[in-house]
Amino acid sequence: MTTKILVLLVMLLLSASLAGVAVCEDETDTTGGYTVTPAKDADGDAGIRWVFDTITQGETNWHNKIVSTNINTLNVDLNWGDTTDSLRLRIYTPDSYVLGPYFDNADGAVDGRINLDIYNPGGIAKGTWRYEVYGHSVVGTEDYYI
Q1: Domains in the chain: ranges and CATH
Q2: I want to staple 138 with a disulfide (CB 3.0 to 4.6 A). Which of 11, 16, 57, 106 is the partner?
Q3: d(Cα 13, Cα 129) in Å, to the nearest integer?
Q4: Residues 66 and 128: beta-carbon distance below 8 Å
Q5: Model pLDDT, residue 40
Q6: E strands, the chain, in order
C-alpha cells in the first residue's frame, strides 16, 4: 500500500512538472530548461525598453519583448510599487513554455514588484516573448511598467 501511494505521488509531481507549472516564491524553479530566479540586479536590465501601462481589477494586459540576439539570461521586471494592490505575471516563451504565475513575493520581497531573471544555459529562445499582466486584486486603477 505504501508503495502505491509513493508511486501515485511521484506521478502527480511528474505530471505537474510536465504541464509546465512553475511557481517561484523564494526558491528556484525550472521549466523547459529555463530557470527562473529573483533578479540579481535590483535595478533590472538597463537594456530593456520599458512599457508604461495601467490596469484595473480583473483586467489582463499583454506585452511583448522580442529577443533577436544570443543571450542566456532575460530580465523581466514588472513594477507597480503599491503593495496594497496585487498583480499577477505569466511569461510565455517563443518555444511554447508558460512560466508562472508569479506574484509580488516571487522575487523574495513584497514591494509592488516582480523582478526575475530567466536563465537557460543553452540560450534564451529567440522570438517574441509574451508577458501577461493580470489585475489580481486592484482598487481603482494601478499604474505599472514592465
Answers
A1: 22-145 (2.60.120.380)
A2: 57
A3: 27
A4: yes
A5: 80
A6: 29-31, 34-38, 52-56, 60-67, 73-79, 86-92, 98-102, 113-119, 127-137, 141-145
Residue 103 near residue 21 (C-beta atoms within 8 A): no
Q: What is the pLDDT of residue 49?
A: 64
In angstroms, rounded to a whole number, what is the distance separating the alpha carbons of residues 110 and 38? Answer: 12
For 9-25, how does the pLDDT look when each residue is reduced to its tens digit (9 = 90+)? 334 333 333 333 343 44
C-alpha cell at 131: 508577458
Nearest Cα to Cα of residue 24 among 131, 109, 84, 93? 109
Taking alpha carbons only, the member of 110, 103, 113 closest to residue 137 is: 103
Look up cell 521586471; give the residue. Answer: 77
Give the single-character DSSP code of 26: S
Length of the chain: 146
